[in-house]
Structure formats: structure tokens, C-alpha cells
Amino acid sequence: MANLVNDIRLAVDSGKTAVGMREVTRAIMSSSAKLVVVSSRLDQSSLEDIKHLAGISEIPIIVYDADSMALGTVCGKPYSVSTIAVLDPGHSKILEEKY
Question: How far is 80 from 54, CA to CA, in rounded Å?
């Protein structure tokens, strides 16, 4: 898990990401998302929507085993973050690693 935390933070800091359900959905639908990270405590209907859209576009999903406040902290945001789409990983190896 520590590598995932570091890779998420590095992708946010050095790459390009979309944060939040609306932005992530938009990134998936435009095929600009390369990876989606969701909080494990995301409500079931939202999770199913993300899984469906990502499945159609063949975009991998990582479930981050913490709530949205912890995911927001990892991203360096002072608020809860339920989903993140990695558009450009920057210096992160998040697209190459298996979690």
C-alpha cells in the first residue's frame, strides 16, 4: 500500500489528474483517463457507474483501501476525494505497477 500512496501523490504532483466523480466520469468518457483510483468506501451505485464506464473503455481501476478523506490527504487536498483519474502519470510508475 505504501507504494500506491507514493505513486498517487507523485502522479498528482508531477502529472495530470482529474479529481471527483464529475471530472473522472468526463475523463473516462473522453478516453483521456489511463487509470482510475476509487475509495473503497465509495457508495455502491457510483462504484458500479465507474466500473461500467471504465470497463467499456478498458481503463483499469484500483480500489484504494481507505475512505475518501484519506484519499484526499494522499492527494494533498484539504477535502475528501472519492475518485481520481490519472491522465498523465508524470514521474509516477502508477501505470506500470500492480497493486
Answer: 22
CATH number, domain 2-88: 3.30.1330.30
d(CA 30, CA 14): 22
Looking at this protein, which amino acid is placed at residue 74? Answer: V
What pairing do the DSSP bridges indicate for beta strands 35-39 and 83-88? antiparallel
pLDDT tens digits along 72-94: 999 999 999 999 999 999 999 99
Q: What is the pTM of this model?
A: 0.91
C-alpha triplet 59, 61, 62: angle, nearest 5°: 150
- Give backbone dihedrals phi and psi of 80, rounded to 5 degrees, phi first: -75, 145
19 Cβ partners below 8 Å, 6+ apart? 75, 77, 81, 83, 84
| Nearest residue to 94 via CA among 70, 67, 61 | 61
Sheet containing 16-19: give its strands across.
16-19, 83-88, 35-39, 61-64
